[in-house]
Amino acid sequence: MDLNPVEQLVMNAMKELGATKETSIKTADDIMKKCNRPKGMVNNVLTELVQKGAIKRVAREKASGYYIISP
Fold first, then answer.
1. Which alpha helices (DSSP H) does 1-71 contain, by range?
2. Ordered strands of the 55-58 beta sheet
3. Which pLDDT does position 16 carry in this prediction?
4. Is the pTM for the entire model greater than 0.70?
5. Helix, strand or coil for residue 55?
6. Which of 68, 54, 62, 53 is nearest to 23 (CA)?
7. How many angstroms separate the CA atoms of 64 and 71, rounded?
């Protein structure tokens, strides 16, 4: 899968946070803090990665969570 540098940064941050299965999902805030990028940018990248099928979004009561589905 071809990822641009920012998408790669977000994927690496998610891996480091351990967001690799549905039982260990992370919020956009967690990911934003880890990769030290603006929240809007991280949210846009998360949306792109969901559309590419690299990660999955889980809607929850408070904040949505994300985890990687393709290593």
1. 5-17, 28-35, 39-52
2. 26-27, 65-68, 55-58
3. 97
4. yes
5. strand
6. 68
7. 21
Q: Is it the case that residue 56 has pLDDT exceeding 70?
A: yes
Residue 8 corresponds to which tokens in the numbers above? 């790669």
If phi > 0 it is left, if psi is from -120 to 50 it is alpha, else beta; for residue 18 that is left
Q: How deeply is 61 buried, as exposed, middle or buried, from its count of CB atoms within 10 A (0-12, 13-18, 19+)?
A: exposed
Taking the domains of the chain in order of start, what are their residue ranges?
Answer: 5-68
CATH architecture of the domain with residue range 5-68: Orthogonal Bundle (1.10)
* Buried-exposed string 35-49: b where 16+ CB fall within 10 A, e elsewhere: bebeeeebeebbebb
